[in-house]
Amino acid sequence: MYYATPLTSLSGFALVISQVPGATLIEGSPTYDGPIIPGITGKLGNAAITTNNPLGVSYTATLPDSPTTGVRGFVKATTNSNGTGVAIQVSLSGFPDASLGPFLYHIHDQPVPADGNCTATLGHLDPFIRGEIPPCDPTQPETCQVGDLSGKHGNITVSVFNAAYIDLYVSTEFGFGSFLGNRSINIHTSNTTRLTCANFVLSSGSPSNTTNSTVSPTSPTPAVFTGAGITTFVSMGAIAAGLIALFL
Ligand SMILES: *[C@@H]1O[C@H](CO)[C@@H](O)[C@H](O)[C@H]1NC(C)=O
Ligand SMILES: *[C@@H]1O[C@H](CO)[C@@H](O)[C@H](O)[C@H]1NC(C)=O
Ligand SMILES: *[C@@H]1O[C@H](CO)[C@@H](O)[C@H](O)[C@H]1NC(C)=O
Ligand SMILES: *[C@@H]1O[C@H](CO)[C@@H](O)[C@H](O)[C@H]1NC(C)=O
Ligand SMILES: *[C@@H]1O[C@H](CO)[C@@H](O)[C@H](O)[C@H]1NC(C)=O
Ligand SMILES: *[C@@H]1O[C@H](CO)[C@@H](O)[C@H](O)[C@H]1NC(C)=O
Ligand SMILES: *[C@@H]1O[C@H](CO)[C@@H](O)[C@H](O)[C@H]1NC(C)=O
Ligand SMILES: [Cu+2]
């Protein structure tokens, strides 16, 4: 399995962005209108397939009865039966007018605070520091952000959405950068507005915690809040950080 190492510089990531002409910003979130760049990958390489995840362990993110959105349901992540990758079950309903879609959903880096502020979950789970640009190519999921579930497995285009698939890149093993159990799900409109969010919590099994800080240098500082977009992001290049995820 992959052990992320703390970064000391963001320069490599800024370089990735600078390779992408035509990037524009909508309200702090980058969009991309140029050609797909083949082979683009994270600063730390392609996402690694996770193996030896703890069997029988599930984490479930259940959306709250928020008054501000009708979207309800859950995303459940269960270690795949052979320990490689994680089985994802998505059961969501109550999506608003289709004109706001397709809807997107991602694992975000940070948990939702007690006040329910989805913005505080920062950006996507992105331990390989791949960034938003160019968009995920689902035929090369290893090159996508680990947390970009809709990018890898499909957008939500119906008002009641059920899906089940294996994602080989997320992990249920504590100590890995791709671990999802202490993070959150965010549901977005197509323009990246956050509709609702929820934390993963252990819902079955015994969590694995055999890794320790000596062998697992994967406790990066929280993702930098980059909501002001690329311009700000580049200007923040001097900031040392572990995980970076743009704000979507
Ligand atoms: C996204 O859509 C929502 C809902 O229509 C709207 O309130 C918001 O201003 C839009 N944001 C952008 C950046 O277009
Ligand atoms: C485990 O199952 C997944 C699909 O569910 C498959 O992609 C993977 O190759 C399998 N791994 C092993 C070691 O059998
Ligand atoms: C939500 O969190 C973001 C990021 O931490 C922060 O900038 C914003 O002020 C918070 N909003 C509220 C209403 O607390
Ligand atoms: C979640 O756990 C991973 C793996 O142990 C760790 O690297 C990360 O910092 C943790 N994230 C939060 C928000 O606690
Ligand atoms: C998913 O939705 C996003 C946002 O509208 C869009 O950019 C992307 O192309 C869509 N992906 C697919 C495969 O349709
Ligand atoms: C693993 O152990 C660390 C350190 O004691 C603790 O912070 C963390 O919550 C534990 N994780 C799990 C999944 O039990
Ligand atoms: C942590 O990992 C190191 C290296 O594998 C090992 O020597 C040490 O005993 C472990 N500590 C604990 C508390 O498991
Ligand atoms: Cu998101």
Q: Topology, please?
A:
Blueprint: H1 11-18, E1 23-26, E2 29-32, E3 58-62, E4 72-79, E5 86-93, E6 104-108, H2 149-153, E7 160-167, E8 184-188, E9 194-204, H3 230-235
Antiparallel strand pairs: 1-2, 3-4, 3-9, 4-5, 5-7, 6-8, 8-9
The site of one 2-acetamido-2-deoxy-beta-D-glucopyranose (NAG) has 5 residues, from loops.
Question: What descriptors fit this protein?
Answer:
single chain, 248 residues, Immunoglobulin-like, seven-stranded antiparallel β-sheet, 9 strands, 8% helix, disordered C terminus, binds copper (II) ion
Query: Any idea what the radius of gyration is?
Result: 17 Å
Number of helices: 3
Count the E strands: 9
Could you report the average pLDDT, rounded to the nearest whole number?
76
Output the CATH topology. Immunoglobulin-like
The CATH architecture assignment turns out to be: Sandwich
Order of helices and strands: HEEEEEEHEEEH
Shape summary: globular
Q: Classify the secondary structure makeup into a structural class.
A: mainly beta
